[in-house]
């Protein structure tokens, strides 16, 4: 079983409810659902079926909200963020293998 300190340091731990996540990001709960529909984030489901979000997912959602606030369509914003993350991962992988 994970220790409390380990959980607090884990970027992928689903610590935030949908309501709290929306409050932190400054968006609606529907916006978070739409990010899930667009495959940007896949929230963990609690035993009761409620969505739970990690800090990493909140950062992605915040990036999407900023782009949408600047006029980018939500589907385009999600695709851009996914591609940026894939590029960053590929660059990181290339640096390790050089």
From TrEMBL:
<dbReference type="Pfam" id="PF13411">
    <property type="entry name" value="MerR_1"/>
</dbReference>
<protein>
    <submittedName>
        <fullName>MerR family transcriptional regulator</fullName>
    </submittedName>
</protein>
<dbReference type="InterPro" id="IPR000551">
    <property type="entry name" value="MerR-type_HTH_dom"/>
</dbReference>
<feature type="domain" description="HTH merR-type">
    <location>
        <begin position="15"/>
        <end position="83"/>
    </location>
</feature>
<dbReference type="InterPro" id="IPR009061">
    <property type="entry name" value="DNA-bd_dom_put_sf"/>
</dbReference>
